[in-house]
Amino acid sequence: MTTFLHDGDLPAEALASAAEVAIDSETMGLRLGRDPLCVVQLSDGGGDAHVVRLSRPGYDAPNLKRLLTDPGVTKIFHFGRFDIAMFYLHLGVVTAPVYCTKIASKIARTYTDRHGLKDVVKELLGVDLSKAQQSSDWGASQLSDEQVAYAASDVLHLHALKARLDEMLAREGRDGLARACFNFLPNRALLDVAGWEDVDIFAHS
Predict the structure, then answer these.
(1) CA dihedral 87, 100, 35, 44 (to 10 degrees)
(2) Residues 160-179 pLDDT 10s
(3) How far apart are CA 21 and CA 75, in angstroms?
(4) Which of 117, 130, 167, 189 is positioned for an S-S bond with 85, CB 3.0–4.6 A?
(5) How far are the Cα atoms of 53, 106, 118, 137 from residue 144, in angstroms, in the given order?
(6) Structure confidence at residue 205 (pLDDT)
(7) What is the mean pLDDT of residues 102-108?
(8) Dihedral of alpha carbons 147, 148, 150, 155, sign
(9) How far, in Å, are 55, 88, 151 from residue 190 at the CA level?
């Protein structure tokens, strides 16, 4: 496994032939509109990872933006709702098409309420992920080796996780429902950005 660290943008040739790309991001916090997007990490499922430290505040990353909006590439997330909203706010793009392993887990794994990435990867893949760097300073001018390794670990298992969850969704007859949720996810993220973050628009009241 090799982890490539890039400043500013993803190289044009990176992930050029991938049909599915696992993506995650690191930010200075979890509040939309307040906390900046700092790092985006990606993998094509082949064992390597690309970690992009974004140039703020300009966010001039045309290759990354092109990938996020490429209709021929499925972007795999875990809790993509937040990442997609951040990409819209800071990169100015609507990410699609997408797949979210957290949504898939909630629809397929109804026997548990543990749907965090660490829990799902541990159960379905037997991999124990470390979350020690999750709350570190992602806005620093230089990322530590530990931060880079952590960022990479969050995308290296998403392809295998998707495959396992797809099997479970198909077995339970819920794959069509999951696809409908994935298709709606970019719009759910846009609702968050527009101010409906804490409102269930489908609720009666």
Answers:
(1) -60
(2) 999 999 999 999 999 999 99
(3) 5
(4) 189
(5) 12, 33, 22, 10
(6) 86
(7) 98
(8) positive
(9) 23, 8, 25
* Beta bridge partner(s), residue 59: none
Distance between start and end Cα atoms, the chain? 50
Report the 10 Å Cβ neighbour count for 48: 16
pTM: 0.96
Contact 96, 71 (CB under 8 A): yes
Contact 87, 68 (CB under 8 A): yes
133 has pLDDT over 70: no
Domains in the chain: boundaries: 3-196
Query: Left, alpha or beta for 188 (phi > 0: left; psi -120 to 50: alpha)?
Result: alpha
Give the integer Cα–Cα distance in Å for 144 and 136.
10
Q: Is domain 3-196 annotated with CATH 3.20.20.70?
A: no
Give the DSSP H/E element, type plus range, for residue 109: none
